[in-house]
Amino acid sequence: MRHKNSIESNTILMIDDNPTDVLLIKEAFALCGENCEVYVAEDGVYALEFLKQQGQYSHVPRPNIILLDLNMPRKSGLEVLKELKDDLDLRSIPVIIYTSSTTKEDVRSAYRSYANGYIKKSADFDGCIKIAKTIQYYWFFTSILNEP
């Protein structure tokens, strides 16, 4: 089923260094049955190379949305978020914080850095499916995304 946006496919960049979390959410999106492709960057440095289509990422598509973990090696999620929102070419990509942290300071810092949403990770697969369905419904069927 095609969504109402005119984008060919729904592309998500997940920035997360936890292979279990990555696997759970990728499988959850796959089970939702929509045309959705999830790319993964295992840290903030790789994420920025992906988004700027540098090096090994020279031929990757621009993602429609980004799922960003806060706690990562080399460059934290908040550092990545600040760089994205400071970049005129990248700031229009919606960034959803997808993390295990629910501290008030992390939530506050994320929104002060212009995150478009904040979702607590689910530890079980059923929860991941609900999250994937909610993200798809809102971002790919309800909202109108800015096309690159």
UniProtKB/TrEMBL annotation:
Record-listed 4-aspartylphosphate modification sites: D69
Q: Does the keyword Plastid apply?
A: no
Q: Which GO terms describe its biological process?
A: phosphorelay signal transduction system
Q: Which key words tag this protein in UniProt?
A: Phosphoprotein
Q: Where do the Response regulatory domain residues begin and end? A: 11-136
**Which Gene3D superfamilies does the protein's record reference?**
3.40.50.2300
- Which SUPFAM superfamilies does the record match to this protein? CheY-like
Phosphoprotein is among the record's keywords: yes
Origin superkingdom: Bacteria
Tell me what this protein is called.
CheY chemotaxis protein or a CheY-like REC (Receiver) domain
Which organism is this entry from?
Nitrosomonas ureae
Please name the taxonomic classification of the source. Answer: Bacteria, Pseudomonadati, Pseudomonadota, Betaproteobacteria, Nitrosomonadales
